[in-house]
Amino acid sequence: MSTTVDNDVEDEIKRIKELSNIEMKKANLALQGLSKFYGNNLAVNQLYLGVNTSECFGLLGVNGAGKTSTFKMLTGDEIISSGDVWIRGKSMKNNMTGAQKSIGYCPQFDALMFDISGRENLKIFSLIRGIPIDEINEIIDKISRELGFHMHLDKKVKAYSGGNKRKISTALSVLGDPDLIFLDEPTTGIDPYSKRQLWTVINKIRNSGKSVILTSHSMEECEALCTRIAIMAAGEFKCLGSVQHLKNKFSKGFNLTIKMKRDDESELLQINKRVYELFASAELKEKYMDLITFHVSSTTLKWSEVFEMMSQLKSEHTIKDFTVTQMSLEQVFLHFTKDDKREVENV
């Protein structure tokens, strides 16, 4: 893996280092040189990051990249080896109790009381959070309906499905209206409909002025929720920015899908010939019935030129129709993580 630091990551390091004390207190979250050692193994290496209000920050990386260790330091589950985490102006290193008052946390593995009901779990955590007793039932009713587990509220948690356990873990993290919410793979095991429900709730929370820090293995989820993301590998941020910014910056070329006039071998050969004439770097990726997909790796072509050339093919009646699409976030992710060979359990 290249040791070159991406310029967006460098800019964030510079920005955080130059923050004044007043600006530090205004930020919901600030990481200053955050590092974690396990023995001689460096799991997290000098992370700098600032997250403000109304922002959802996504942390991506393969297993062993350092995401879970970072999360554990941010929430106080692990001791910080060096550097510091500031939450609403309070240091996690020197004032952990004060910092933790501003956060809600949905851990990767459900930390629930399984022998009591979902309602009782929510009541206990509401009281811990200092929510007035006369407001608790209304809050529980509202959040359980929004997350889609209201009908299961009075069942024991051990009888819940894996998806409903994740929903109640997410519900616990937002109780008490915390400024900063950590969600560690919140949608694992949740069906697509419930996942959309949860996304709606997370977006509503973010739009209300809160900050959300999210880890996920779903690129679709990150695109739906995150205002910025960082891709981690070998304990470092390899890139940082909005999803569209990262696609524009790191995607190699584009995908071209062509609809043939008829599913015919001679037709296919003719289209192949014309596409290779127009795009020297084109590579046939897939054919399904009358649809064929090429990947064009050229990064110098303007999209206007591509559409002009493909419109010409269409006007020649060589093809019936076409679509041009940008490379996906998943392909950007693979670009940064393919060389991260570390096999560290739960790093």
Biggest beta sheet summary: 6 strands, mixed
Number of strands: 14
Beta content comes to 15-25%
- What percent of residues adopt helix (DSSP H or I)? 25-40%
* Shape estimate: globular
Query: Which strand order does the major sheet show?
Result: 6-7-8-3-9-10
Count helical runs: 13
Distance between the termini: 18 Å
Q: H/E element string?
A: HHEEEHEEHEHHHEHEHEEHEHEEHEH
User: In CATH's first tier, which class of the domain at 1-102 and 179-188 and 206-250 applies?
Assistant: Alpha Beta
Instruction: Indicate the radius of gyration in whole angstroms.
Output: 24 Å
Q: CATH superfamily of the domain at 1-102 and 179-188 and 206-250, please? A: P-loop containing nucleotide triphosphate hydrolases
List segments where confidence is low: pLDDT < 50 over at least 5 consecutive residues: 342-347
> What is the CATH architecture term of the domain at 1-102 and 179-188 and 206-250?
3-Layer(aba) Sandwich
Structural class: alpha/beta
**CATH fold-level topology of the domain at 1-102 and 179-188 and 206-250:** Rossmann fold
What is the average per-residue confidence, as pLDDT, rounded to a whole number?
Answer: 86
Description:
The protein is of the alpha/beta class. Among the domains are: about 1-100 and about 180-190 and about 205-250, Rossmann fold (3-Layer(aba) Sandwich), CATH 3.40.50.300; about 250-325, ACT domain (Alpha-Beta Plaits), CATH 3.30.70.260. It has helices spanning about 5-15, 20-25, 65-75, 95-100, 120-130, 135-145, 160-175, 190-205, 220-225, 245-250, 265-280, 305-315, 330-335, and strands spanning about 30-40, 40-50, 55-60, 80-85, 90, 105, 180-185, 210-215, 230-235, 235-240, 255-260, 280-290, 290-295, 320-325. The chain has a 6-stranded mixed beta sheet with strand order 6-7-8-3-9-10, sandwiched between helices. The chain has a 4-stranded antiparallel beta sheet with strand order 2-1-4-5. Strands 12-13-11-14 form a 4-stranded antiparallel beta sheet, covered by helices on one side. β1 and β2 form a beta hairpin. α5 packs across α6. It is globular, with a radius of gyration of 24 Å. It starts with 6 loop residues before the first helix and ends in a 10-residue tail after the last helix. About 35% of the residues are buried. Residues about 340-345 have low confidence and may be disordered.
